[in-house]
């Protein structure tokens, strides 16, 4: 009898433990990411994966995501798109068909994002992406939202700043990757440079995965441009190209709209990247950054060995935007979430923000974020100017009334 009682007590205790664990564990919400985890752009992808998981951890420790009377914990599924369309398609098929994911919160690369989008829109999955172009936005893509500043946002203020502080700038050579990201960026770059009275003396292309930049560098330097603009080149390619042009004796104005951390570029280019103007780098240790950003960049230094940049932090912001959309819609239905996202103001690593950009893209699918104009000086980033979107300022002011 005593043994039976012990078994009964143990069974009741185990049942209670299972019940408690069930409540605490919640149901699982799978969220996918598609980013380069290898190759020249790997620092971007590894950082995005890390910040997305940091957001998931913060959400889970804070009680999860609540919708429809249930609570969900977040799980991040990350795959390497190798920064090309073919691998982007494979990742899309894996996430959407094998893993049955209904939410993608973080992508890098226009070509792999477009490959994913062609499937996500058809399946009815929500895509919070980092495609660096306009072709992923618009009314024909109702389930797609962009969570990073793109050429239309960053290039005009960046080039205007460079021209203002270098009045002798008359000519520029543009080098772009021969893919969707590079082609969309080049269109905006050429238009804005010419609007500022700067002549484009060369616009050339290179293939992702290129390791020998000397022939390209010789061709560019031969045009004797006042400035060289590398568009959306990743850190490794940027460092390699500017290292070669320095060897050839060129010492003009260096511009990289997609430039991120100085550390990543210096690993390849050394001091050849000094003086470079950027628009996707920020001093996340500095006073203009939020507490969340300072915590994340400190953690990334320990985890990856470099400070966080604007490309990487979008993983965190995408997951937080998804959480806000789910809770505002009180639903896990991607269509219901997409319907409320343009109407809400929510917290990201940057603080309160919202989706906008209808006047530019035809629908409010662009996350409204500060544009950070910076320059690499003595191996470190110096923030020169932060531009807050006028639309965001108006939205926040209206919300306070």
Molecular structure report:
This protein is α/β, with parallel strands linked by helices and 401 residues long. It folds into two domains: 203 residues, Rossmann fold (3-Layer(aba) Sandwich), CATH 3.40.50; 127 residues, Rossmann fold (3-Layer(aba) Sandwich), CATH 3.40.50.2300. Helices cover 47% and strands 21% of the residues. It is built from 14 helices and 17 strands. It has a seven-stranded mixed β-sheet. Strands 2-3-1-4-5-6 form a six-stranded mixed β-sheet, sandwiched between helices. The chain starts with a helix and ends with a helix.
> What is the name of the CATH topology of the largest domain?
Rossmann fold
Oligomer: single chain
Largest sheet: 7 strands, mixed
CATH H-level name of the largest domain... which superfamily?
Response regulator
Please report the distance between the alpha carbons of the first and last residues: 71 Å
Highlighted features:
single chain, 401 residues, alpha/beta, Rossmann fold, 2 domains, 7-stranded mixed β-sheet, 6-stranded mixed β-sheet, 14 helices, 47% helix, globular, disordered N terminus
